[in-house]
Design goal:
Layout lengths: L3 H10 L6 H13 L8 H6 L12 H14 L16 H23 L7 H14 L9 H35 L1
Helix pairs in contact: 2-4, 2-5, 2-7, 5-6, 5-7, 6-7
């Protein structure tokens, strides 16, 4: 997966007004909701047909390839794009909330108004929507650091659960028909 700075730079060059974590969240939400994985994913995810497809080998193309591979990984290897552990709590939590905003919006685009979700999936989506509305606090202590780590793990698992409910289940239903 490309680094946060590579995706930030590529996002600016493409004229996008979203942060790298929000773009990655949007891509993941699109994939989890069963959105088309081929063609110009960037135009679909950003709902802007004027956006050109990312060039092969570019950071945005690598981001797409990594996200697709991580969702298909049987070891649940989804990694959320965000600042490293050396960044402030505010920067890391803000990036996580941005990621959730992107995920929830693009998931809705891909899955539609009434997606087929399990009970756990419905709860996970509601929790992600609450996190998408959250704002980062300026400081924190060891307890806040631990809480952020738990929230990050929850978000990662929730995204995988929603992918299973929508994208994988749809593929399974199509194979049966």
């Amino acid at each position: 997966m490309p680094s946060l700075s590579e995706v930030e730079q590529a996002s600016r060059e493409a004229g996008l007004a979203t942060s790298a974590p929000e773009l990655h969240g949007s891509l993941c939400g699109w994939l989890a909701g069963g959105g088309d994985t081929g063609g110009n994913w960037l135009a679909r995810v950003m709902v802007d047909d004027a956006l050109p497809a990312p060039a092969e080998g570019s950071p945005l193309a690598r981001l797409h390839a990594a996200a697709r591979a991580q969702f298909e990984d049987r070891d649940f290897g989804l990694v959320l794009l965000g600042p490293g552990d050396d960044a402030s709590l505010a920067a890391r939590s803000g990036a996580l909330f941005d990621w959730c905003r992107g995920f929830v919006g693009a998931f809705g685009l891909a899955a539609g108004a009434d997606p087929r979700l399990s009970g756990e999936g419905e709860e996970a989506l509601a929790d992600l929507a609450r996190l998408a509305r959250a704002t980062a606090q300026d400081d924190g202590d060891e307890e806040d650091e631990e809480a952020l780590a738990e929230i990050e793990e929850f978000v990662r698992v929730a995204a995988l659960l929603l992918h299973g409910d929508c994208a994988l289940a749809a593929r399974h239903r199509n194979r049966l028909n």
